Automatic annotation (TrEMBL), chain A:
The gene is ELC1. The lineage of its organism: Eukaryota, Fungi, Fungi incertae sedis, Zoopagomycota, Kickxellomycotina. InterPro entries: ELC1 (IPR039948), SKP1-like (IPR001232), SKP1/BTB/POZ_sf (IPR011333), Skp1_comp_POZ (IPR016073). It is found in: Nucleus. Its main location: nucleus. It comes from Coemansia spiralis. Belongs to the SKP1 family. This is Elongin-C. It comes from the Eukaryota.
Automatic annotation (TrEMBL), chain B:
Residues 1-29, 49-76, 96-174 are annotated as: Disordered. GO terms for biological process: SCF-dependent proteasomal ubiquitin-dependent protein catabolic process. This is UV-damaged DNA-binding protein rad7. GO terms for cellular component: SCF ubiquitin ligase complex. Residues 53-76, 118-133 have a biased composition (Low complexity). SMART domains: LRR_CC (SM00367).
Length: 107, 726
């Protein structure tokens, strides 16, 4: 268990059974995920998520979670970019669900 | 000037290890070379020249001349020749300081790296005379020195200067110093000063090393400044309506993108369709949080099927937006608007007229709405209004009179932080006692009578609900015969009363009258910030009348003593015990569920103990913020059911408190605020948590003894704990 905190990837599971394996550094751009994966939290013990490196989001659908991971990658790629940044596109239909998921994940 | 030139050339051609100078230079002695080699130089003189030039701005030139000839010390000269100006005295002090500085500097002369070029170039007649003056001082102090020194100074032969230089050199020589070999060029030099430098370098090498350092620093600095604009370039600034510049920090967040996309394609989104009310509510909250709710986005939250409209931020919703809200949601029963600073009096009246189902109203920050408009609103709403909550608005006596008279079905009333709400408004909740008030309220009742009659006569009910109508209604009311006017009635359905944090003082007497009138029906009472209510309010009015009370908020009521609080809770407990058998008293509350006693600084342990004894079994929410002056850990342990009492006095001294009783504690407690209660510590919380199994939130701002080791369990949150924030 202890060595798992040193792994560099994290497994994100959606409510409808999809799992996405993402680089930890990329995933931690979401402060909610970052807090979940924090091993030492001001004295209190870490969440199970931090030990197993697996996070379940029962309220987020696979399609939305995929889009969120895409956004995290996009942000990771272009955060320090000086050149013109391409627009991040998504379907308008999913924008509502995406908004609520993004609000939850704080990204 | 030739001195400077020569000195410079001398330095640059220092003969080190037999390397001879190629440049032509004037005659100079072996001593000059020696002095140059060991690092004694003329830099301090140039430096002083510069200082003198600055100083010269303060001193008059003619005074300077007299000083130069004088052989008295500088301070004497200053006091005699310049005593008339305050500036001059200051200048004298400055000079003295500078001379001290010269001494100090000369001792570290070999290590100095200052550029002398500028100083050498800057020289004038006045500066020279000023130097001479200083030399005079030295002369007076030190007398004559050896001839050898004059050789160093060459043709710039000012006797005073020679002496001074010699003196300085000597003093520095007296201080000692070590002969060292330069790490770079291998030349011997005199190292002075107490501290050992990081490297042993002669003056020349030190300077060149420092120069390269400086260059490096500059390159680094340039690199920094060149990268900074790059970052800044990326940050586009966008201008907001208020003319304030907002920085766009890099990439937009996903939430931002989503809301923007939704807002942008709002014309395509006719409605959110099958989205649940809960989700819609959440979406509204997110949009409000981002301050994006405006005329465009507003329409997504409106519709004829809506029975409840909650908007958390109406800052951008103008008159027309409000009108649209009224038009598109005719069936709304509950209206909750925050930050509705743009809402006009007319909007409010339109709401009352057109939203016929409206029962629950909560408006936050409707500054523009006037007292009269509120009065008209209540006249129109009448008995439809069941819950009315306002904050920060112009709610005054006129509005209150209308509310009390017309809205008799009201069961919840909150008027918080309204500037115009004063003691007379509070008094209207009780039967009027002054003649003036009686007359005013009769007038209001006459208006009510008229509107009822006009309704019966199929006249327009809203005939008087605009600004002019207010006056017309009053005129009409005066014509009604006084015998027809019904007598005063209290708000008989009112159960929840919140008049917290008034701006104007509320008297104890009035508060007591109100509680005597309404107390028996009240479940919730919030008199937070009523700083003038006293013990008898609690012990006479509240104790006798408020049997049904479940929530009590008396924050900042500092005129009530701790003893009165303890007595009140004790009496309530006894009353409950005695009334337990009586079936008739079925409405009596079993205990308080929410208690706010924050900022009642003086509360003692006994108060908490009595509170727990009375409502320990029912308490869910407790605020003890800043109750710190007299509270000890034994008081807080009452929450865990442990009642400590000081033992009876024995032989003139008392021992520590003893555990006298143990109850089940606050088993239902869910939230507690212990901020700034310094006796709250890890151990206390450990015991409290062992009994309060439902506790989910503890606020511990400023509790230094609640540390990272405080007890935790799933579902429990600490807010404001120092180790989390610092």
């Amino acid at each position: 268990m202890s060595n798992s905190s040193e792994t560099t990837t994290v497994k994100l599971a959606s409510g409808d059974g999809f799992t996405i394996i993402l680089d930890k550094q990329v995933a931690e751009q979401s402060s909610t995920i970052k807090n979940m994966l924090e091993v030492s939290r001001g004295g209190s013990s870490a969440f199970t998520e931090a030990l197993t490196n697996e996070i379940k989001f029962p309220e987020i659908k696979g399609k939305v979670l995929e889009k969120i991971c895409q956004y995290l990658m996009y942000k990771h790629r272009y955060a320090d970019s000086v050149d013109r940044v391409p627009e991040f596109g998504f379907d308008l239909e999913m924008s509502l669900e995406l908004l609520m998921a993004a609000d939850y994940l704080d990204c | 000037m030739d001195f400077n030139d020569r000195a410079r050339s001398g330095r640059s051609n220092q003969r080190a290890g037999g390397t001879s100078a190629n440049r032509i230079r004037g005659p100079h002695s072996a001593l000059t070379d020696y002095l140059n080699e060991i690092g004694v130089s003329d830099h301090f003189r140039n430096r002083r020249r510069n200082e003198q030039q600055v100083e010269q701005g303060v001193q008059a030139n003619n005074q300077e001349a007299t000083q130069a000839t004088s052989s008295t010390t500088l301070t004497e000269a200053a006091t005699t020749a310049q005593a008339d100006t305050a500036d001059a005295a200051l200048a004298a002090d400055l000079q003295e300081e500078e001379q001290g500085e010269v001494h100090a500097e000369s001792s570290t002369a070999p290590m100095r790296t200052r550029s002398r070029r500028a100083a050498a170039a800057a020289s004038s007649v006045i500066a020279v005379s000023a130097v001479a003056k200083k030399g005079g001082k030295k002369k007076a102090k030190k007398g004559k020195h050896s001839d050898g020194d004059s050789d160093f100074c060459g043709s710039d032969s000012n006797e005073d200067e020679i002496n001074q230089r010699g003196g300085l050199n000597r003093s520095s020589a007296r201080k000692g110093g070590r002969m060292k070999e330069c790490e770079i060029c291998g030349k011997r030099f005199l190292l002075r000063g107490e501290q050992t430098p990081d490297r042993f370098l002669c003056a020349m090498c030190r300077r060149s090393v420092d120069k390269t350092f400086k260059e490096q620093a500059e390159v680094a600095k340039r690199a920094r400044t060149t990268t900074a604009p790059k970052a800044a370039k990326r940050r586009r600034t966008k201008k907001t309506e208020g003319g304030l510049l907002e920085y766009d920090p890099g990439l937009p967040t996903l939430q931002d993108l989503c809301v923007r996309a939704i807002a942008k394609h709002l014309d395509q989104v006719d409605s959110f369709g099958d989205i649940s009310t809960q989700s819609l509510h959440k979406l509204c909250r997110i949009i409000c949080k981002m301050r994006l709710l405006d005329e465009q986005t507003l329409r997504l939250f409106l519709g004829p099927e809506k029975t409840s409209v909650t908007l958390y931020d109406c800052t951008k919703i103008t008159d027309s937006g409000m009108q649209r809200l009224i038009e598109q949601c005719p069936n709304v029963t509950s209206l909750d608007l925050e930050y509705c600073g743009r809402m006009s009096s007319q909007n409010l009246l339109d709401m009352a007229r057109n939203l016929t189902q409206l029962k629950y109203v909560r408006l936050d920050g409707a500054f523009v709405v006037s007292d009269k408009a509120w009065a008209m609103f209540f006249r129109t709403m009448g008995e439809r209004l069941q819950s009315f909550k306002i904050k920060y608005t112009g709610f005054g006596p006129g509005a209150m009179r209308a509310l009390v008279t017309h809205c008799t079905a009201l069961h919840e009333l909150q008027v918080s932080e309204c500037i115009d709400f004063d003691d007379s408004c509070l008094a209207m909740l009780a039967a009027p006692i002054t003649d003036h008030e009686e007359v005013q309220q009769e007038l209001e009742r006459a208006i009510k009578l008229l509107s009822v009659r006009s309704k019966k006569g199929k006249m327009a009910a809203g005939g008087y609900d605009d600004a002019d109508g207010y006056m017309l209604a009053e005129d009409a009311a005066r014509s009604v015969a006084s015998c027809d006017i019904p007598s005063w009635q209290p708000l008989s359905k009112l159960e929840r009363l919140n008049l917290s944090r008034p701006y104007k003082p509320m008297s104890n007497q009035t508060a007591m009258r109100v509680v005597e009138t309404l107390g028996s029906q009240l479940c919730v009472l919030d008199f937070a910030g009523f700083k003038d209510i006293e013990d008898d309010f609690l012990l006479q009015a509240l104790d006798k009348n408020c049997g049904r009370l479940q929530e009590l908020h008396l924050s900042e009521c500092n005129s009530i003593s701790s003893d009165a609080f303890a007595e009140f809770f004790a009496r309530q407990r006894h009353k409950r015990a005695t009334s337990a058998g009586h079936a008739a008293d079925g409405k009596r509350s079993n205990g308080l569920t929410r208690v706010g006693l924050d900022k009642c600084y003086m509360l003692t342990d006994l108060v908490i103990q009595e509170l727990v004894l009375y409502s320990g079994a029912t308490l869910r929410w407790l605020n003890l913020n800043s109750v710190d002056d007299n509270l000890t850990m034994h008081g807080l342990l009452a929450l865990a059911g442990k009642i400590y009492r000081p033992p009876p006095e024995q032989d003139g001294h008392r021992g520590g408190p003893e555990l006298v009783d143990e109850t089940s504690g606050c088993v239902l407690l869910e939230e507690i605020d212990l901020s700034w209660v310094h006796c709250a510590s890890d151990t206390v919380l450990d015991m409290v948590l062992s009994k309060c199994t439902k506790l989910a939130q503890i606020k511990t701002y400023g509790c230094s003894d609640v540390t990272a080791f405080a007890p935790t369990r799933p579902g429990l949150v600490y807010i404001g704990r120092e180790c989390d924030t610092l």
